[in-house]
Structure formats: structure tokens, C-alpha cells
Design brief:
Elements (H helix, E strand, L loop, with lengths): L4 E8 L22 H6 L10 E10 L6 H15 L4 E7 L5 H12 L4 E5 L12 H13 L5 E6 L2 E4 L4 E2 L8 E2 L7 E4 L2 E4 L14 H7 L5 E6 L7 H11 L8 E8 L7 H12 L3 E6 L15 E2 L5 H12 L1
Parallel strand pairs: 1-2, 1-3, 3-4, 4-5, 11-12, 12-13, 13-14
Antiparallel strand pairs: 5-6, 6-9, 7-8, 9-10
Helix pairs in contact: 2-3, 3-8, 6-7
This protein binds succinic acid.
Length: 322
């Protein structure tokens, strides 16, 4: 019988990082080892009932993630997901922008097979390397019959793409799904699901992937935070630049405002945001709180982000503007 495939796509990150000193958990260089090398380091029985295929899509520290890499990654995911003999995908990724990539892939692919992002908080050369266990757990999730949607697996926990957030700078269990809670756990290679697998987004556009593939540049959407003394000067500077003859990719198309508490904004920032809205810029309000969602109340003039964090709201707005 032909074995089904699990395709492991490498993009870099700490999981592929190396350090001169195995005791050094922070002084390392991310994205040094190829994805095939990461798999070779696993015990031989890993996902033995599946054929493992590897592909290096990128090799970067995820703080430097770009639209070009996202586009390439989305296209390679779409390619592999369309193959009948592919059971699921695993993507190795840095922790720093993992939640943005997960949400982007969820929004453009809405897959009916598992697409599992995994990562590590310590480099591959560390005495405390967490990448191998995270990879094994991700393979366990990708192998599971019936699994579907874009999820993230880290420290034995399965998170959905919409809710996952990196909430800690250092500890191995660096991710949370906030109020929503995780989808499940991986224990000794067994997946224990406590929720349903993610459904494709309700508003997914069938041509989303083509739009991503065919765009020369993406709509410029900036994130600004509200804080004591926020004065909106940056909004006016962005508007001034957009009004000039600057190339299309520099012109401001959207603004995500990370407000205080329930998405409230410093009065001067709000006034500047209204000027931006009148100039044709889409403005949405998120909250700078890491849990909870913005609740609309009578008189609110700026739309809110339906519970998305500022970075995910930016992805959603860019895709909307496409
Ligand atoms: C990265 O995001 O690529 C580096 C940091 C990490 O993976 O933890």
C-alpha cells in the first residue's frame, strides 16, 4: 500500500537555530539548519506510517518575515494540500511572528487538512532544545485522521490560528489562546482534543490565494498604539506622504489602532484617525490588552476588529483591501 505523505515545510526560526555554547539559550543565530536536518535529529519511529517529504521554503528569523515569503509559503501549502496523497502539512517557523503567519494561512487557505505550525524557544544546539519534541507533537497532529485547519503546536499544546498569541519572551510554553483556550494537547504522542478543529473562515474568498499570488505589492496597513500623550502626528505624517506622488506600495490604505482597554483612543489620536478615515483610509480599532475583545457601543464611529489582536487585524485588513 502506498503510504500517505506528510510534508514538512521549513521557514527557519529558533527551531533551526544554533549557538556556539550549548548552555546559551539566547545568544544564538536563528535559521541555520535545514528542515531535513531537523527531521534527521528525531527518533527513527517519527510518523513512521507516513512518508515524510521536506521542502525549504525560506530560511529566516521570523522577525524579518515578509509578504514575499508569505506568498511563497501560501502557494507551496496550496500546492501540497491539493495532492490526494498528502495527509497534512507541518511548517517549522520562528515563534516571533508565528501567530501572524498562522492567521494569514488560515484566512487564505481555510484548509480541510491539517496545517500545523511548530517552533522552539531554544536553539537546536541547546541542552534544553524543545524543537525535537515540538516537531514530534506537530507530526502527531498532522497525522491524525480528521484533523483540519491551521493550528500551532508548542509545548504540548494545540492552538487555533485565530486565537494563538505569543505571550512570553522566554519560557518554553510561550503561547496562549487567551479566553478561548487551546484546542487540545499532545501527550506521549497522543492528541487529546478538547474542542472542534477550526472551520474555514466564514468569509473566506475562493480567489484569496490567486489574489495573493497576483499582487505585486500589498496594501499598506500600519499599526499605531494609543498611550498617554499619543498625539496623532504619525497619522498626519503618513497621510502627507500618501497624498504625494509616492509609489502605490507606500500609500497608506489602512490603519489598525491598538487602543487602551475596550479600544478607546487618546482624543488627539482619534481626531487624527478620523481625518485619515475622511481621506479614504480604512481605520479599525483593536485593543492593546492581550485578552478580551473590543465591544462596540452606541456612538462609536470606528469599526472594531471582531476580537482579533492588532497584528492579526492588520492581516485581515490587508486581505480585505486586496
Ligand atoms: C524567530 O522568530 O525566528 C526567532 C525567535 C524564535 O523562534 O523563538
Amino acid at each position: 500500500m502506498v503510504r500517505k505523505k506528510i510534508v514538512v515545510l521549513g521557514t527557519g526560526g529558533t527551531i533551526a537555530g544554533t549557538a556556539a555554547d550549548p548552555g546559551d539559550g539566547i545568544g544564538y543565530t536563528a535559521a541555520q539548519l535545514g528542515v531535513a536536518q531537523l527531521l534527521q535529529a528525531l527518533p527513527g519511529q517519527a510518523a513512521s506510517s507516513f512518508e515524510l517529504v521536506t521542502e525549504q521554503v525560506a530560511q529566516l528569523d521570523s522577525k524579518d518575515m515578509s509578504f514575499q515569503v508569505w506568498r511563497q509559503l501560501a502557494l507551496r501549502c496550496a500546492h501540497w494540500l491539493a495532492q490526494q496523497d498528502v495527509q497534512g502539512l507541518v511548517i517549522t517557523h520562528g515563534t516571533d511572528t508565528l501567530e501572524e503567519t498562522a492567521y494569514f494561512l488560515h484566512a487564505v487557505l481555510g484548509p480541510d487538512k491539517p496545517v500545523v505550525l511548530t517552533c522552539a524557544m531554544r536553539p537546536a544546539t541547546s541542552v534544553h532544545a524543545d524543537g525535537p519534541q515540538n516537531m514530534l507533537d506537530a507530526l502527531a497532529v498532522a497525522s491524525l485522521p480528521g484533523a483540519q485547519g491551521v493550528v500551532a503546536v508548542c509545548a504540548g499544546t494545540v492552538h487555533g490560528a485565530t486565537d494563538v498569541q505569543k505571550i512570553h519572551t522566554y519560557r518554553l510554553d510561550a503561547f496562549s489562546s487567551g479566553d478561548a483556550g487551546p484546542l487540545g494537547f499532545v501527550e506521549e504522542g497522543v492528541v487529546r482534543l478538547v474542542k472542534q478543529w477550526p472551520e474555514p473562515p466564514a468569509n473566506i474568498c475562493l480567489t484569496a490565494i490567486e489574489k495573493v499570488a497576483n499582487s505585486a505589492f500589498w496594501p499598506r496597513v500600519e499599526i499605531l498604539m494609543s498611550y498617554a500623550g499619543a498625539d496623532g502626528l504619525v497619522v498626519d505624517a503618513l497621510l502627507a506622504q500618501s497624498a504625494s506622488d509616492s509609489p502605490g506600495d507606500l500609500r497608506l490604505k489602512g490603519l489598525v489602532l491598538a487602543g487602551t482597554g475596550n479600544g478607546s483612543l487618546h482624543a488627539t489620536l482619534e481626531a487624527a484617525a478620523s481625518r485619515a478615515q475622511q481621506a479614504g483610509v480604512r481605520v479599525v480599532r483593536a485593543s492593546r490588552c492581550c485578552e478580551g475583545r473590543v465591544l462596540m457601543k452606541p456612538g462609536d464611529s470606528l469599526e472594531h476588529t471582531r476580537g482579533l489582536s492588532p497584528v492579526k487585524a492588520r492581516v485581515a485588513l490587508m486581505l480585505d483591501l486586496l
